[in-house]
Amino acid sequence: MDLLSIERILRKHKILVIPVVVLTFLGVVYFAAFSKPLYETTVDYVFVPPPAPPTAEQIALNPNLANINSSNVFSRFDDQSIIADSIVSRMSSASTQQALVNQGADSRFTVEPISLYGSPEPMVEVTGTGATAAEALKTSSLVSAALERSLSSLQRAQGTNSTYMFTALQVASSPPVIKVSSKLRSIVAVLGVGVVLLFVLVSLGDAIDRKRAEVRDGSEPTAAGNGHAPPAHPVATGGAATPAHPVATGGAATAAHPVASNGAPTNGAATNGATNGADVNGLAGRPSELHLWTPVVRSPASAKGNPRPVGL
Question: Full-prediction pTM beyond 0.70?
Fold first, then answer.
């Protein structure tokens, strides 16, 4: 199917095409002009590991260190990214997100683990979102504060002293920027729905047209079904009619049409033994003449007698 064929099909089904095109255009205009923009700002945090527990010499110098719980379960793992994964899991929970939304944060914020600057320390990135730059900054601030509180409470639940806890250190941030891709995604989605709907409707319309054409072609009269019987006597080459009735063995014509009981001729045949327009009594011995098959003409004087063959 080339472009001209597609253009013909669309023009043929313009009643279906025009509404879909208009609705798609209105949807694109709405998302391009009236949908709220999306601003994003990011803040990167690195989790600084706690100091090592006090040694025996340090405890001997400062006996108060013996009363401090310096054990931190997260510092025992070789892969300390587990602390970042734990914080991301907490910040992504429905309860935490709803609490932040109630405080005024945008619901589209994210907290994700990252790996930047070649640092072996666990890192996370907070993305604040909003319809304006101020809203994005506010969301980023609220989420960052909640992240620090979550990090502290997670370790405090283990009884770890604050001196020996992981701490969140901000290492990078970006100003709010508008995300064109958010509008673009909406516009592309509307165009995609419009194209699919247009294809479905045009396909259905084309299928219905083909079905109607098949039904219409099937209802046209044919030679066998138009109520007219085909010619009973074929015509020989040259326009001469071929004999419609066979000739019996011995040269006598067989009776192809019934004869009325009152002796009157039926279908052009006489009742006195003449069959198929031939005089059997007079021509029984002349088969060669029967093959000439000429019509029987009866004069008024002989209307009640035997027909007289003419032309033999």
Answer: no
